[in-house]
Amino acid sequence: MIDYFKQTLSLKNLLLVFGALAVGLALITEVGAHGVTDGDKGYIQESSGRMIIPFIYLGAKHMVTGYDHLLFLLGVIFFLYRLKDVGIYVTLFAVGHSVTLLSGVIFDIGVNAYIIDAIIGFSIVYKALDNMQAFQRWFGFQPSTKIATLVFGLFHGLGLATKILDYNISPDGLIPNLLAFNVGVELGQIMGLSIILILIGYWRRTGGFIRHAYTTNVALMVGGFIFVGYQMTGYFINK
Residue 178: inside a domain, yes or no? Predict the structure, then answer.
């Protein structure tokens, strides 16, 4: 770990990275948010009643293909070696997104998809900076990773709720279908996380893990910034 923490990331360099990304993203003319495939959306809109299996499938599909969620989870478990710790953080994340997913749809809480996706992108940036101990160097204290995981889980769930609301689901069978979607999300999370754990487990057995940990988290941070810029560009273009 010593070589990893000898490297630094200054606020100046961080702002330069973000500025360069913002300039590039300003050239984007059309950006989508919370994309829903025409086939999935049409199927849901034309159906009513309990559809447990289809909604489990949709929930799992959303999580497995949701690179924003998976990147955040990668950041969360990056330095977690014990399955007990992985379980604690993943549970906090699952509780957070389950609460806002269910309440968001039931109470029809509408949030602009671009804004919520930008916050999800910021969660990736936050976790990458946390992994690089940037907050300790900049501000002299370490924010609670558990609280941050729970809070960002709430935002991720709100993003899922926004996606579900976009389906215009029939009120007939809404609650069972919503619970099925949430089950699918958890199954998809388990599948995605299992793959990540297997790959990172092999990587940790090599000498390259510590050597490249810092660079990997910088890449993770940049990916988060790109996602934030992408969504904010879409927000202003489609305002």
Answer: yes
Q: Is residue 179 part of a domain?
A: yes
For residue 39, with 0-12 CB atoms within 10 Å meaning exposed, 13-18 middle and 19 or more buried, which class applies? exposed
Residue 49 lies in a domain: no
Does residue 163 register a pLDDT over 90?
Answer: no
The span from the CA of 31 to the CA of 45, in Å, is 24
- Packing angle, helices 145-166 and 67-77, rounded to 10: 170
> Is residue 20 domain-resident?
no
CB 233 within 8 A of CB 94: no
**What three-state secondary structure class fits 228?**
helix
Domain enclosing residue 147, as ranges: 61-237
DSSP annotation string for 141-188: S---HHHHHHHHHHHHHHHHHHHHHHT---STTHHHHHHHHHHHHHHH
Please say whether the beta carbons of 161 and 101 come within 8 A.
yes
Flag whether the pTM goes above 0.85.
no
How many domains are contained in the chain?
Answer: 1
Per-residue pLDDT of 109-157, as tens digits, reads: 878 888 888 998 899 999 999 999 888 888 888 889 899 999 998 998 8
